[in-house]
Design brief:
The complex is a heterodimer of chains A (about 425) and B (about 250). Chain A has a 19-stranded mixed sheet that branches. Chain A is globular, with a radius of gyration of 21 Å. Chain A folds into 2 domains: about 260 residues, no CATH class; about 55 residues, no CATH class. In chain A, a hairpin with a 2-residue loop joins strand 1 and strand 2. Chain A is about 20% helix and about 40% strand. Chain A has 9 helices and 19 strands. Chain B is of the alpha/beta class. Chain B has one domain: Rossmann fold (3-Layer(aba) Sandwich). In chain B, strand 1 and strand 2 form a beta hairpin. In chain B, helix 4 crosses helix 6 and helix 6 packs parallel to helix 7. Chain B starts with a strand and ends in an 8-residue tail after the last helix. Classes of the chains: A alpha/beta (about 425), B alpha/beta (about 250). The complex binds adenosine-5'-triphosphate and magnesium ion. The site of magnesium ion has 5 residues of chain B, from helix 1.
Chain lengths: ~425, ~250
């Protein structure tokens, strides 16, 4: 069944969201191309392959109420030593900006970065998404505050950054924008955490834009922990220079309805990209991870691994596109996606997409969807484990490949959310 | 300690056990032999609580408790252990983590305090020694990539760790080389005691040279059709099953 929004419906949504963001506070000006794109692109429909399983008509009803109170939420993974910044519904609420001057590191809110160093953001801070995807255009048309990490060439950011974006209770929209620039041969580690209360509704339409210079290194952990009924759209865009290394791990710990678009462009030779993710929808939840990597230059590598479970009546979608451009020779690209279905009414739509225009390429992909291993469950129970303990152990084992890549504090936290949500703890 | 009375069980429309009766006293070792497909593993699975089988008639009592009322976990807590004919591979779960979780899960359900890390490791060491289990296997994923013999040894290792009251060994000897057979038998023998019973399913009299049973039973066509002392195993080895099975009254349609 396909659903199509009438032009007035989505124009009205765009107006409501933009108004709400503007009155709550935007950072910077709307991106001009984005405003125009909102008109020309048209609202996504399930007739389009990229949106086939993702019913965005349900977002047309989002009608935000007045701006949220800006009280800081409790700290997440409090044991983790990090440069911490907190945002509530697209507004900066706390954190100590690190500012080493025009030629040094900057870590702080985008709003402050724009005020102090607009020229450092100009060239790279909008991704392709802003003119190619309707929701990304909406985000770029009324961007709000997020973290800005600027590491100049040759620098190493010593402490990890933890940016925590929180959606308070009530019907709200937030369009945070996180900007990361890692100069040549520089490096940084960051955690981007988004959460909500159980009473949060509305929409979270967030962008992460990162540019990673030649020989630079970025390690990013993205955690999405959103009880409540917020609709989450994520636009995560990475551009890598030659010999750069990117690791991005995404854990969807909890989401009512979530669509993530992750795009990596290898814009130089010998780039190395690792992108892993995990998800575990239950109840009626919907989680959709769309990824795309563009190998645009020779000698690049990529390692993609997404694993997830769909329980009850939930739906999970994985779509992984690997694009190897003409002349991008000697690429090694690996993709694996494994899924488990934990209920007869759970659905999983998994699709690898490979487009290869170079001839000397090593590319492999594997995609599996299976059931929970009943034999293993019986074996564990026959050794005295409760069903809960046995399920937990099996899920932990299944997700370990992905979760073990996170910091231990985050790994344990995400696993505990999964266990609690499935009633296994 | 275990009393099986007139047990009938089926899976789907296939009736597998057809009136099986068997009694085991505390501290006794019983061997069950019988042709392929006669229902030996089915009996073992039902004892351990696999719920694929439907018990249509009969009863099983264990230490006075109606076993059929307990689920697989509760049976393990009650002291039943099954060494699987085909141990399951569980990628991603280390043998050691698996055992710690199992042991502490049982202790918790018995309202006992969890074992300290130190006591646990000491126990692992002692039990691994008992069956000469390679240290590397303890840290690997449960049974993953283990050879057939290693899997069987791992089963006996787990049995030693969990100290059951009733251990059901389903063809634990098959796939073992001669040395391993001796080692495994030694492990079992050293666990024999007044409070622990064994039900040893095997095709080979050879095992029973090492683990000397108090009784030997023949399971055929879903029932115990003949019982005897340890010398019955020798006789079966020599004569096969036909002389017993053929002597059975034919089934009523
Ligand atoms: N899950 C099942 N589905 C269908 N039939 C089954 C199932 N499990 C067992 N059976 C059948 O029940 C019968 C008894 O099987 P069982 O495994 O108990 O035999 P066994 O005595 O252990 O044989 P073996 O000596 O070969 O191990 C066989 O005919 C088998 O095919
Ligand atoms: Mg068998």
């Amino acid at each position: 069944m396909s659903e199509v929004a009438t032009p007035t419906q989505h124009a009205a949504l765009a107006a409501r969201v933009s108004d709400a963001c503007r009155s709550a506070g935007m950072v910077g000006a709307p991106y001009p191309g984005a405003v125009a794109a909102l008109d020309t692109l048209g609202y996504p429909t399930t007739r389009q392959e990229r949106w086939r399983y993702t019913r965005v008509t349900r977002l047309l009803d989002v009608s935000p109420t007045a701006a949220a109170p800006h009280t800081a939420p409790p700290a997440v993974v409090s044991g983790l030593d990090a440069l911490r910044f907190t945002f509530v519904a697209g507004q900066f609420v706390g954190g100590d900006t690190l500012d080493e001057g025009a030629n040094g590191c900057f870590v702080g809110p985008v709003s402050v970065a724009l005020a102090r160093y607009p020229e450092r953001l100009e060239a790279w801070s909008h991704s392709d998404f802003a003119t190619k995807e309707w929701f990304a255009a909406l985000q770029a048309a009324a961007p709000q505050d997020g973290v800005c990490i600027l590491v100049p060439a040759g620098h190493k950011l010593e402490r990890p950054v933890l940016a925590h974006h929180h959606m308070p209770a009530g019907v709200h929209v937030a369009q945070p924008r996180h900007l990361i620039h890692i100069g040549d041969n520089a490096s940084a580690e960051a955690v981007l955490w988004s959460d909500t209360t159980a009473q949060s509704e509305g929409m979270m339409n967030a962008a992460i834009t990162a540019a990673i210079g030649d020989g630079a290194h970025l390690s990013l952990e993205v955690v999405q922990d959103e009880p409540g009924t917020v609709h989450h759209m994520g636009h995560h865009h990475f551009t890598q220079g030659s010999n750069s290394k990117l690791t991005v791990r995404t854990a969807t710990a909890c989401a009512h309805w979530l669509r993530n678009d992750l795009h990596i462009l290898q814009d130089g030779t010998h780039a190395d990209s690792t992108f892993h993710g995990c998800y575990l929808p239950n109840g009626q939840q919907f989680v959709d991870h769309h990824t795309r990597i563009d190998h645009a230059h020779p000698d690049g590598q990529s390692d993609e691994l997404y694993k997830g479970l769909a329980a009850d009546k939930s739906t999970a979608v994985f779509n992984g596109k690997i694009m190897v451009h003409k002349d991008a020779q000697r690429i090694e690209a690996y993709q694996r996606n494994s899924n488990l279905l934990l209920g007869e009414q759970a659905a999983m739509y998994a699709k690898p997409e490979l487009e290869i225009y170079a001839d000397d390429v090593r590319c492999s992909h594997g995609c599996t969807t299976g059931q929970f291993d009943k034999e293993a469950l019986f074996y564990l129970r026959s050794r005295g484990m409760t069903e809960t303990a046995a399920n937990n152990l099996l899920v932990q084992a299944f997700l370990a490949e992905v979760l073990d890549g996170f910091r231990p504090e985050i790994r344990d936290y995400v696993h505990s959310v999964y266990a609690r949500r499935l009633g296994w703890s | 300690m275990l009393k099986i009375d007139n047990l009938h069980a089926r899976i789907g429309d296939t009736e597998i056990l057809k009136g099986l009766s068997l009694e085991l006293g505390a501290g006794e070792v019983h061997a069950i032999m019988g042709p392929n497909g006669s229902g030996k593993s089915t009996l073992a699975s039902i004892l351990a609580g696999r719920d694929d089988y439907e018990v249509t008639e009969g009863s099983i009592t264990f230490d006075g408790v109606d076993l059929l009322e307990l689920d697989a976990t509760e049976r393990a807590v009650a002291g039943i252990f099954l060494a699987f004919q085909y141990p399951v591979e569980i990628p991603g779960v280390s043998n050691i983590n698996f055992l710690r979780t199992a042991l502490n899960s049982i202790r918790e359900q018995r309202e006992e305090a969890p074992l300290s890390g130190k006591d646990f490791l000491a126990k692992v060491k002692a039990c691994a020694q008992l069956v000469e289990l390679d240290g590397k296997l303890r840290d690997r994923s449960v049974n993953e990539g283990f050879s057939g013999g290693e899997k069987k040894r791992n089963e006996v290792f787990q049995m030693a760790m969990l100290e059951p009251k009733l251990a059901v060994l389903d063809e634990t000897d098959s796939g073992l080389d001669i040395d391993a057979l001796r080692i495994v038998a030694h492990g079992v023998n050293s666990m024999r005691g007044a409070d622990r019973s064994f039900l040893v399913i095997t095709h080979y009299q050879r095992l029973l040279d090492h683990i000397v049973p108090d009784f030997v039973h023949v399971l055929a066509g879903g029932r115990i059709v003949h019982s005897g002392g340890k010398e019955l195993a020798l006789e079966l080895e020599e004569k096969g099953y036909d002389w017993i099975v053929d002597a059975q009254p034919t089934e009523q349609a």
